[in-house]
Amino acid sequence: MRLRIVLAIVALATTVNSLRADVATDWNQVYLECVRVEGGPPCPASRWATHLYVAMFDAANSVFGDYSHVIVKENVTRPTSARAAIAAAAYTILSEAYPAQQAFLDESYSNSIKMLPPGLPRARGMQLGRRVAQAVMAARADDGSDDDTPYVYGSNPGDWTMSDSDIFDAPATPNWGKVRPWAMTKSTQFRVAGPGGFRKMARLLASQIYADQFNEVKELGERNSATRTQDQTDIAWFWANDVDGTSKPPGQLLQITEAVSIDQGLDFYQKTRLFALVALAMGDSCIAAWDAKYRTWCDLWRPQEAIRNADIDGNPQTEADANWLPLAPWTPPFPAYVSGHATFGATHAAIMRNYFRTDRMNMAIYTDDPHYTGPSPRHYTSFTEIARENGRSRIYLGVHYQFDADMGYALGTLVGNYVFANKARPLCSADYNNDGIVDNIDVLEFTDAYFAGNKSADFDKNGVVDEFDYFDFLNAYTSGCN
């Protein structure tokens, strides 16, 4: 009899999930809108995303306790609303990050709290979320992100310099490679080798691999290319998201994360963990990629400067074109090697593959980029396909070489795998009888307590034993423990 009841409750879980207000998704949308309005380079946006989702996760995890915390785990002993904690944590972080948008954030927070039943659990959740957010900000207050040391340009062929079409008027975040990582032991932990394995700029420029990739981007990335296909042009613009008014490269990947999490039926707590893992990986990927861009011998010039100055690169297989323009009407204001887009995309794919334990997933994906006019949404069947196309898009856009994308992919994959293996790891909250084993006995004993109305079945610690407790318990049970 009890087993039939368990199966019935499992069948009910999907219906219960669809009725829930999803505070995690709501605040993801608020963040994305803040980025669209605020603009700026990708690394600061990724830094605040990491603050945001770590605070949301640590707040919820303080209530539920299913995973190891990232920054802080408070001891919650009284009924406390995890949803209120998530909303308060998000509001506190974003108010610090985007003070010019305070009116929008105030309204969003008011709407979020109004959806929750009033009472002490909600009030405790709001207090908890604020404390956790403040702890996260305090832990990262001296991370080095405010280093404004001027960038010193090189003066040799191949050395990066600002172009007349750069999207900003100064090198963007040249010291970001020195920011203290969230998960990596140091910014150089996964530092990749130079393009083609070279260690000196002159040898790279004189090489066959440089000539091949120079000529590829010269042909495919040229503004009026006769060989770039319409689909390749669509790919270039779909993944661009460089200009202000878009959610930027990290934001586009968070949009994908949200879409997949909804399609896969994750509840709000599971989403906070997934978002936190993605944000942690992208936060560290930005540090690792900018270390490669600015802190190695290979502060490599972008294709526009390379093609216009090919007469001084020492390679007889490259030919200068003083009037060459990329498809993009701008050039990102930082060195080419490695590609930030490719690094972000690869680290996102690594987290998603690890989390869902598969690379195969049917996905319908959208873009914010105003230049994109192709079919919408675009459809993909794997996380790897998305990441690879993201990196390849930069060649079609005329702003990167293929080795930028290839080594960015390798770097991002290493970072993503490392973050997943070391952060927000599962604990055994579904071990209801505390015998060190998660098995059907835990389900049966929890079921007995649940139908008896026993307070020990208040799994979400909100002071009420209801169907949400059973749903959350079953999620923890089916997720298992490592």
Helices and strands, with pairings:
Elements: H1 2-19, H2 23-38, H3 42-64, H4 82-97, H5 102-114, H6 120-139, H7 201-205, H8 208-220, H9 230-238, H10 248-263, H11 268-294, H12 303-308, H13 340-356, E1 360-365, E2 378-382, H14 383-396, H15 402-422, H16 440-451, H17 467-479
Antiparallel strand pairs: 1-2
Helix pairs in contact: 1-16, 1-17, 2-4, 2-10, 3-4, 3-6, 3-10, 3-11, 4-5, 4-6, 9-14, 10-11, 10-13, 11-13, 11-15, 13-14, 13-15, 14-15, 16-17
Overview of the molecule:
Mean pLDDT is 92; it is low at 1-21. The chain has 17 helices and 2 strands. It is elongated, with a radius of gyration of 24 Å. The chain has helices at 2-19, 23-38, 42-64, 82-97, 102-114, 120-139, 201-205, 208-220, 230-238, 248-263, 268-294, 303-308, 340-356, 383-396, 402-422, 440-451, 467-479, and strands at residues 360-365, 378-382. Strands 1-2 form a two-stranded antiparallel ribbon. It has 2 domains: 18-139, Vanadium-containing Chloroperoxidase, domain 1, CATH 1.20.144; 176-422, Vanadium-containing Chloroperoxidase, domain 2 (Orthogonal Bundle). 54% of the residues lie in helices and 2% in strands. It is mainly α and 482 residues long. The two termini are 31 Å apart.
